[in-house]
Amino acid sequence: MKKLLLITVALLLFQDGVLAENSLPEVSLEGDPFVKEFNDASDYLRVVGIYSPTCGHCLSACADLQQFLEEHPQAKVRVFLLWSPFMGFDTEVTARRSTRYLTDSRVTHLWDVWRFGSRNMAMLLDIPLLEAWDMYAAFAPGVQWGEECPEPTFWLQSRELNKGIPYTPAELEAQLEKWLE
């Protein structure tokens, strides 16, 4: 009986992807592996998204960026999506499911359980920690992430802050097109 129960639990975990190989890389408290991958891509414009995997607006913004990437297949851009637990049902499993909204090969999805991206953006941009999500921050080629987060070239936010550029799909496209070669 115990063996049957263990097999059933294991099958359920594999079915939901909990033990599957397709789990998202987890960002550590210090930012690994995100910071290394960010710096390794310094020849590109880097767009960092900080999102909740269960926020409808966040998923819509990901779909907007997917559309832009499809329309600009030669754009020299790398995208890092930092999925973080900001809402009650945010888990690595829901984050993994949300990767469907942004499937371009230039995108790296990471599970930022410790909110490394959000913490760094909040400090750098002088915004409340609980408001440092539902946003894109872009970094020009050549910019490196050192001991601290570098200043973004531009950032768009949907948190109704009095800082940053308010997010709209048109504004995202306008800001990114400035960087197309």
Describe the model:
The protein is of the alpha/beta class. 35% of the residues lie in helices and 17% in strands. It contains six helices and six strands, in the order ααβαβαβαβββα. It has helices at 2-16, 34-40, 56-71, 92-98, 116-125, 169-177; strands at residues 45-51, 77-83, 107-111, 135-139, 154-157, 165-166. A six-stranded mixed β-sheet has the order 3-2-1-4-5-6, with helices on one face. Strand 2, helix 4 and strand 3 form a beta-alpha-beta unit. The longest helix has 16 residues, at 56-71. The chain is globular and about 40 Å long. It starts with a helix and ends with a helix. The model is unreliable at 4-20 (pLDDT under 50).
| Poorly predicted regions | 4-20
Q: Write the H/E string, N to C.
A: HHEHEHEHEEEH
Task: Give the CA-CA distance, first to last residue.
Answer: 63 Å
Tell the overall outline. globular
Note the main sheet. 6 strands, mixed
Strand content: 15-25%
DSSP strand count: 6
Q: Provide a count of the helices.
A: 6
Secondary-structure content class: alpha/beta
Spatial sequence of strands, sheet with the most strands:
3-2-1-4-5-6
Write down the Rg: 17 Å
**Helix coverage percent:** 25-40%
Q: How confident overall, as mean pLDDT?
A: 90
What are the key terms here?
single chain; 181 residues; alpha/beta; 6 helices; 6 strands; 35% helix
Lay out the secondary structure.
Blueprint: H1 2-16, H2 34-40, E1 45-51, H3 56-71, E2 77-83, H4 92-98, E3 107-111, H5 116-125, E4 135-139, E5 154-157, E6 165-166, H6 169-177
Parallel strand pairs: 1-2, 2-3, 5-6
Antiparallel strand pairs: 1-4, 4-5
